[in-house]
Amino acid sequence: MDRRRSKQTVRLYLYTGLLLLDVAVVIGTPVLLALMFQPLGIRHDLLVTLAIMPVYAVVAINSGAYGPDVLKRPIESVRRSTMSLLVALLTILVAIFFLKQSEEVSRLSLGLSSIASICAMAVVRGVYGRDARRVTK
């Protein structure tokens, strides 16, 4: 019984770490790019970045990006999280379009931050999944 509780505790810590890494990637990557491109005059709307996070969280939970098999199979973890991020980005883009706010959002910065976030998500999830699989064995 004690060993089972210990495995459940380890899994809970791993899922919490995965969620925190996802938040760091989804919010941190665009913020870093905004700081890097600020001298070039490329503006970035941080409200768009903040709007992506709750949509990503709902889609990721629904798609199983925090399910039990993502700790065992890093490739599946990468696939589910990047697809969830793509769906969240598409949802926000559609909302921006229909709210007629598309002129106020820089397409260049949104595109660059989207590509960078997807790449960072794949790398972070892959490395984390590899290490998590080693811990859960």
Describe the structure.
By secondary structure, the chain is an all-alpha fold. The protein has four helices and no strands. The protein has helices at residues 2-37, 46-63, 74-98, 107-136. Helix 1 packs antiparallel against helix 4 (107-136). The protein is elongated, with a radius of gyration of 17 Å. The mean pLDDT is 86.
Oligomer class = single chain
Q: Can you give the helix content as a percent range?
A: over 70%
Largest sheet: none
Cα distance, first to last residue? 18 Å
Question: Roughly how many Å is the radius of gyration?
Answer: 17 Å
The secondary structure category is mainly alpha
Question: Which regions are unreliable across 5 or more consecutive residues at pLDDT < 50?
Answer: none
Helix-strand pattern: HHHH
Counted beta strands: 0
Mean pLDDT: 86
Sum this structure up briefly.
With 137 residues, this protein is an all-alpha fold.
Element layout with pairings:
Blueprint: H1 2-37, H2 46-63, H3 74-98, H4 107-136
Q: What are the key terms here?
A:
elongated, mainly alpha, single chain, 137 residues
